[in-house]
Amino acid sequence: MIPDIFAPLLGQPQAIELLTQAFKQDRIAPAYLFVGRDGVGKTLAAKCFVQLLLYVETQNITTLQNRLRQGNHPDLWWVEPTYQYQGQRLTAAEAAEKKLKRKAPPVIRLEQIREISEFLSRPPWEAPRNVVVVESAQTMAEAAANALLKTLEEPGKATIILIAPSPESILPTLVSRCQRIPFYPLDTHCLTQVLTQTGHEAILTNHALLNMAAGSPGSAIASYEQLQAIPESLLLEVTKRPSSYRPALELAKKIAQDLDTEAQLWLVDYLQQSYWQQWHQSGIIHQLEQTRKSLLCYAQPRLVWECTFIAMVTHFRVSL
């Protein structure tokens, strides 16, 4: 008898029921699409489901869990978006460990999809099937997505799990070949429970972070960690009302120098929440939305922030 491996997954009863029944009825689909906003449990659900898919009755479930945690199971291939750096592929965690300044988000690359095809070309060694998990499937370029489509058409003795924020974020042809498993934002009770269990009670008193999280404990935790990584002096300056142009220009320079692009994009979200709570000025929120669009278009960050803060100074002077 397999223990309740989905116990750590809170607030997603529909997903748990769909996956559990598929296993109990021996109706495992060749491919699944886990969809929902980031941080609500999609990756955790995939890890739990992988345990079911790779489980063999003669094997101790604890032993299996330990092997999966160590990443040494021969029948599992887990794919994450990567950066290209000096001829190496680095995950987001590896890039952060090396303190690389990143200008663009990581992506799933064509060569990673080819590695999936190579992995699936051989039968499983120990488990009933091979299992492939692709995190952030929406980051695939068209060539990589088309290559994966060919694999989905003939997966062999395997199950492929794609994780994405929405069906619209990936090719419709990929969506049509997957069984969709929806994930939803957590209610206040489950969100509080997750943050408490993971030792992040401090987040519960930060209304800006909770508003940004919108029912996603993973997003709340990621935002909290990002908040801790920003120098306190910089955060204090940037959350105050800008009073004149010269300090605003100096602040723009500091942000561009001290924070990479991902941190700057997060700061836009945080400032929208913080500024709205302080001043309830919709014009400032719209200005920050333009800041986000400009950063995503790889405009020069210092110039983007200079324009942002100059517009804010002007806005406050006019509104007073």
Remind me, CATH topology of the largest domain?
Rossmann fold
Residue windows where pLDDT falls under 50 for at least 5 positions: none
Q: Output mean pLDDT.
A: 93
Helical proportion, percent range: 40-55%
GO molecular function: 3'-5' exonuclease activity; DNA-directed DNA polymerase activity
Protein name: DNA polymerase III subunit delta
InterPro entries: DNA_pol_HolB, DNA_Rep/Repair_Clamp_Loader, P-loop_NTPase
Pfam families: DNA_pol3_delta2 (PF13177)
Please, could you describe this protein's structure?
There is one protein chain. The chain has 2 domains: 13-184, P-loop containing nucleotide triphosphate hydrolases (Rossmann fold); 189-319, no CATH class. Helix content is 54%, strand content 10%. The chain is built from 15 helices and 7 strands. The strands form 2 sheets. It has a 5-stranded parallel beta sheet, sandwiched between helices. A two-stranded antiparallel ribbon has the order 3-4. Helix 9 crosses helix 10. It starts with 12 loop residues before the first helix and ends with a helix. The model has no long low-confidence stretch (mean pLDDT 93). Pfam families: DNA_pol3_delta2. Keywords: Nucleotidyltransferase, Transferase. Its EC number is 2.7.7.7.
